[in-house]
Automatic annotation (TrEMBL), chains A, B:
It is a multi-pass membrane protein. This is K(+)-insensitive pyrophosphate-energized proton pump. Its main location: membrane. Homodimer. It comes from Anaerosacchariphilus polymeriproducens.
């Protein structure tokens, strides 16, 4: 039985998190802001972000509407086959998934675009206060994402008592993530690249110069890509890990839901405690402060889950598997940091290589990016094997449940991860606002320091997120098998025990699965490219046609909204074919080769997806920090040939790390969920 | 029973091929060469190539000696367990594999470094004769490689009657290929990059300028990388495909060896016919001539195998599977051509993107490189499934035999593929010689045209080679399972029927297998980088310390051999760690997770290896031709900003397409063979 205590506790913790988010919001709102320029530009950014969100959500609503109707008619089984309430539940769960994730994104953006102004203003006086505004702004996103996520899962589970409904919820979250992450990623890089190409390269005006029509779009991009997009991505991973654990666990025994809800709830509670402990201590080092939050949360989580396990008689082996996930997540994060931190060799050697021109910058970053996939994949390999072995004595499918719980463990402190991560774009925005509002040299130094801390911490949280996604998709493979077997039992077909690589149908699927993440990435990268070209044209047009703009005549402002419009329309237009390609291929493979081919397909997808996601994220981060390292005065410093080469590396890395790399996670999850949802259909109708 | 008729026929065809090689050699030798400069430079190139080969072979002999002793002691089972003759046979077969492949490489280089001089000389008068010198020079390599390969396999099989001995032979060929392909790849790109960096970029002297101390090393590199390296690579793939087919086939019935030998022999015969048909017709288009050779060979092969199947009562289904392989190989070749041909959109759009700077060149090439993996992988997926399904009615392991035969089919016309491929570096060299010997404008135009045809055809042959390697490694996975089961039967252990992805040990292996090709590539790329830095220093030193060199004073020559020396030493030094990393990881995974983990490991390796090999080869080819497209006067032409950007793309692509990409094939084969050879050990001693 699912214990009511844990359901109520989980709901209470979620509500508490939402309450904390509201309290943080009022705190931020209450911070002073007096500078008019800053406020005005802040308003423009907020409005721009809202424009994008509105357009995105309208498109999403149409898309989700169609999918919801399809679910209503066909899933989990065709509506004419009887059980229509199940279809209704799943369609409803799907809509909840998209809506709650969208709501979290909306709240996060709303607060982030206030917090940036407050952080900028506070930087005039005090680094500590400026830090707090940035961090607490990010924490609203963390609280909202995980609060809505846990609330949705628990409420749905309580009402339906059916873990499959969670699949619908998870698919909803994935749909939104696809739009938010890939769409936001295209938006932000469109604006970034074209602002630089015309502004810095052609006209030689500085970054964040208010004359540049794309400058507001660039700032908006930070918010829609790095705040809303990243939040949706982790909402998606978090729900998927819970869905996998619930489906695999509840198939073994209904009361396994208790431990999932308990550990997830404790994770959120630990993050709330971590958020309230966060402040810059006497050390005055923002990086230390951010890392300290993570360690506190981890420690609290470790203690509280042990306590709960002891008090409520949970299985210690499951606890062990969960902790393995958490610890390996930390290790992956630290290892990722090595490859992207400018105090370490890879970044410094890449910067050094830049002295011999851009080709060697690219080759060097490429090589270290390739190296960087090693620790994460070894981490995933060891954690899945360890979780399995720890839970093996429990028998049955418990080892697989152990792996799912390792994924839940890795994602347990995700609210804190999001808080640290969303801090980055907020202080980045604040830095821009300080510059545009002329708040003085000291404020600029302060926001520079805060910004740099954001970049350092980001690498670690990103490693965490990808590692967790890796474990989650394995759990989703188990979920798929589970769904197939439930259907097979009903249809009187043979139960499958796995996917044998030597089975030619599995192998067929494997081969087709490999190129999908590559093609998906290519479509997004070319999407950014095409979109940037459209925007470059518009920027050039404005500089040509608006009199006095180029000279910076007082009172002459560019048409910011036109650029935001182009980035928005283009991003959404470019994103659809990539998403459809992945979904349609899945459906084709399923109807050609059946469930075995899908097993291979998902494996190929996971393998090449993990490889490319890790490579692109890390190489991108490395090039970015390589450029910053040169700009800090090394290898010739700003303006040198090495700097020019490092800028090329950074530009190549931009869509890698902010568009394609992180979107691959979502692509894999979407494909996995589509497979699970259509398991019955693939089982019943296939060519081979 | 293995039929003596087919053994004798195969041996006769091999000897015929070697005879043809000798005849072609005398033909080439008999062509006139009068220009002294050309002859002198040609001598330098030949000597340089021989220096590299000698050093490489000495190192290889040591390495192979150690491995041979290890095989003698431990494989197929420890020598103290009784059957020492088997160990002796395998060690002997191993040495034969390295020696015959090395011999083929030596012959190929010897002739290629004569043919380049003759082709250059002939270009003064006649494009047809110049073409013939280039093509026939390449054909010697083709005949020698496949002749020795078939001869070795047939003789070994006839004497031992044991297909496992072929594994030893195949591993020998792989060891040589690792040295020749990866070592040659590092050599050629070291010379290429550093010659360009100091010569073209720093001093502004033209390419192939005799004052540049690295210019001879650069020409040597074409021979050791693209002639000897490529030959060793295809020797390796060809033997591996035959070994897999023989092992899987003979485990079913001894007389399956007949069909393997028959089809392989016919393939070589068809190639001989193709070589003799080769000439530039009235069309005067070298590309057409080269492609025509391929089509003629394919047609002859199709007809003759059908005839043999009919006359000797071979199974038609096996014939069908073989033809599927051949046809899919052609299709992959054509699809690959699309992504690297400068008459097609991807290259042209990448050149277009270069107008906005090097970052967009890189991003665009990256995206199309990602797209380009799709057709090849779909081709492999379909051909393996089709071969399997065609042979399914034969029962037992015949479907797997069918897949092995599809790989044999893809590689059947490999002698022609090598001839076409080795033609490229020969006429490339000829072009350099024409320039250095001042043979006139018309000769330059002729060799330019011949060179460009080489590039176009190369893409197709490369697609072929990678596709074949893909199918071969699947067959090798089957071989591994076969070896495990032979050992399991003897040891009284359970027979395995496959590798289940849901088995955590398989999954563990899968995750560890993914990063290996990436790390291997990274090590080679950084190896090129480090080596190039050493060489750049030496070139700068010579220009500084040799009086009159920079000014081009008559009689002053740089110390070419010093540069060749650096490239040689560095290449061999950088290659060893990469090779050992792959082999040691395999051994570790095997002893940790046993045969199931190795099954996963090989799968992960194949998946990420195919992805990266296809991507790097195609992206590299695309950037290369993008640069040539710009140089042909498009997008601003030579000297424009677009050209500078395109050069950056080309430099990044160089180690992709000539070092890392093609070496991955060999890395996968080596790892697969090590696994098969150690199957018994992994079965007996492992942690899990």
């Amino acid at each position: 039985m699912i214990n009511t205590f844990w359901q109520i506790s989980a709901i209470l913790v979620s509500v508490l998190a939402l309450g904390v988010a509201f309290w943080l919001y009022t705190w931020i709102k209450a911070q002073p802001s007096s500078n008019e320029t800053v406020q005005h530009v802040g308003d423009l950014i907020r409005k721009g972000a809202n424009t994008f969100l509105r357009r995105e959500y309208v498109l999403l609503a149409r898309f989700a509407g169609v999918i919801a109707i399809l679910i209503l008619i066909f899933l989990p089984s065709p509506i004419w086959s009887g059980n229509w309430t199940k279809n209704l539940t799943m369609a409803f769960a799907y809509i909840c998934g998209t809506a709650l994730s969208a709501l979290a994104g909306k709240i996060g953006i709303q607060v982030a675009t206030i917090a940036n102004v407050k952080s900028a203003e506070a930087a005039k006086k005090d680094i500590k206060l400026s830090f707090m505004a940035g961090f607490r702004g990010g924490a609203v996103m963390g609280m909202a994402v995980v609060g809505f996520c846990l609330l949705g899962v628990t409420v749905l589970l309580s009402f339906t008592k059916d873990s499959s409904a969670i699949l619908g919820f998870s698919f909803g979250a994935s749909s939104l993530a696809l739009f938010a992450k890939a769409g936001g990623g295209i938006f932000t890089k469109t604006a970034d690249i074209s602002a630089d190409l015309v502004g810095k390269v052609e006209l030689g005006i500085p970054e964040d110069d208010p004359r540049n029509p794309a400058v507001i779009a660039d700032n908006v991009g930070d918010n829609v890509g790095d705040v809303a997009g990243m939040g949706a991505d982790l909402f998606d991973s978090n729900v998927a890990s819970m869905a996998a654990a619930l489906i695999v666990g509840m198939a073994l025994a209904k009361d396994n839901a208790n431990i999932v809800l308990a550990y997830a709830g404790i994770g959120l509670l630990a993050s709330i405690i971590g958020v309230f402990c966060a402040r810059m201590g006497s050390s005055k080092d923002p990086t230390t402060a951010l890392n300290k939050n993570t360690y506190i949360t981890t420690g609290v989580y470790l203690l509280l889950t042990a306590l709960a396990t002891f008090m409520f008689g949970f299985e210690w082996r499951i606890w062990g598997a969960t902790m393995v996930g958490l610890l390996v997540g930390l290790i992956i994060g630290i290892a990722t940091d090595y490859f992207t931190n400018d105090k370490k060799k890879p970044v410094q050697l890449t910067a050094e290589a830049s002295k011999s021109g851009p080709a060697l910058t690219i080759l060097s970053g490429f090589a270290y990016g390739f190296f960087s996939v090693l620790p994460a994949l070894i981490g995933i390999a060891i954690s899945s094997l360890a979780a399995y072995k720890i839970c093996e004595p429990l028998g049955g499918n418990y080892p697989l449940f152990g792996i799912s719980m390792a994924a839940v463990g890795m994602l347990s402190i995700v609210a804190m991860i999001i808080s640290n991560d969303a801090y980055g774009p907020i202080v980045d925005n604040a830095r821009g606002l300080v510059e545009m509002g002329n708040l003085g040299e000291e404020a600029l130094n302060i926001t520079d320091e805060l910004d740099s801390a954001g970049n350092t911490v980001k690498a670690m949280t990103k490693g965490f997120a990808i590692g967790a996604a890796g474990l989650t998709v394995i759990a989703l493979l188990g979920t798929f098998m589970n769904e197939v077997n439930v259907a097979a039992a009903i249809a009187g077909k043979e139960i499958i025990s796995g996917f044998d690589i030597m089975n030619p149908v599995v192998f067929f699927g494997l081969m087709i699965g490999i190129p999908i993440p590559a093609v998906f990435s290519a479509m997004l990268i070319l999407g950014v490219d095409r979109n940037a070209q459209r925007m470059v044209k518009e920027i050039r047009r404005q500089f040509k046609e608006i009199p006095g703009l180029r000279e910076g005549k007082a009172g002459v402002v560019p048409d910011y909204s036109k650029c935001i419009d182009i980035a928005t329309t283009g991003a959404l237009r470019e994103l659809i074919p990539a998403g459809l390609m992945a979904i349609i291929t899945t459906i084709l493979v399923g109807f050609i080769g059946g469930v075995q081919a899908i097993g291979g397909f998902l494996t190929g997808n996971i393998v090449s997806g993990l490889l490319l996601a890790l490579f692109m994220s890390n190489a991108g981060g490395l090039w970015d920090n390589g450029k910053k390292f040169v700009e800090a005065g090394h290898c010739g410093g700003k303006g040198s040939d090495a700097h020019k080469a490092a800028v090329v590396g950074d530009t190549v890395g931009d869509p890698f790390k902010d568009t394609a790399g992180p979107s691959i996670n979502t692509q894999i999850t979407v494909v996995s969920l589509v497979s699970s949802l259509l398991a019955v259909a693939f089982l019943s109708y296939s060519l081979f």
